[in-house]
Structures are given as structure tokens and as C-alpha cells.
Amino acid sequence: MTAWDISSSGVQFVTSLVEDAMDDLAKDVKAYGTDVASAAESAGTISAAYCGASQTGAVGAALALFVEGTAQEVLFLGARAAKSVSGAREATGYYEGGALEMAATAQRNALAAPKVEMPGKGGEGQGGGEK
Length: 131
Known about the structure:
- This protein is mainly α.
- The protein contains three helices and no strands.
- It is elongated and about 65 Å long.
């Protein structure tokens, strides 16, 4: 890695901007979940209303399938950003300490795609964790 010329203050600045964006993304994802649930409930059903729990209509079922089908990608966005920030900071720390081989290893590890497990599907935590 002879071409490295890293400014630790620059890395800190950029990674702090990414963290701010990650916070905003987390808020947007939470709002997205609330909005989809509201849309599914407001869409109603094809059949007449009965006493008891409301039924899920065709639009609500389609929204649920969409959310289920895209949840992995949504969780991946957060996991990818978090791994990139962590890797950039780790590699910079090694670089500043003169451990260029360890910095290169940290950089390679950060570039690998994170493993994301869906909550409730055998994984622990909220799905954004790396194994």
C-alpha cells in the first residue's frame, strides 16, 4: 500500500457525515415501516367487515410481501455503511501507527460484504449485525 496518503481528520470528518446519514436512514426506515402498516390498514378489504380483528385485503397483502421481499436489502444498507465507517477508522488507526500491512488487512475486511440476518430467522439482534 505505497500509494496511501491519509488525513485522519479527513477520515473523521467523512465518517461523521456518513454516521449522520445513517441516523437519518434509520429514522426513514422506521417511518417507512409505520407508513406501510398504515397504508395496508387503510387499503381495506374486498369482503364485508366482520366483528373482531380486521382482515387483510389484497393491497395490504401485497404491501406485506413487498416489505418482506425488500427487508434484506434495507438492512444491508445500514450494515454496509456501518462496516465501511468502522473499517475506515480501523485502517486509519493502523496507518497512523505505521502498521501498513494491518491497515491493508482492515481495508480488505471492510470491503467484504457484511452478512445480514433477518430478525426472528435464526439470527440474533436486529439483523444489522456482522458474523
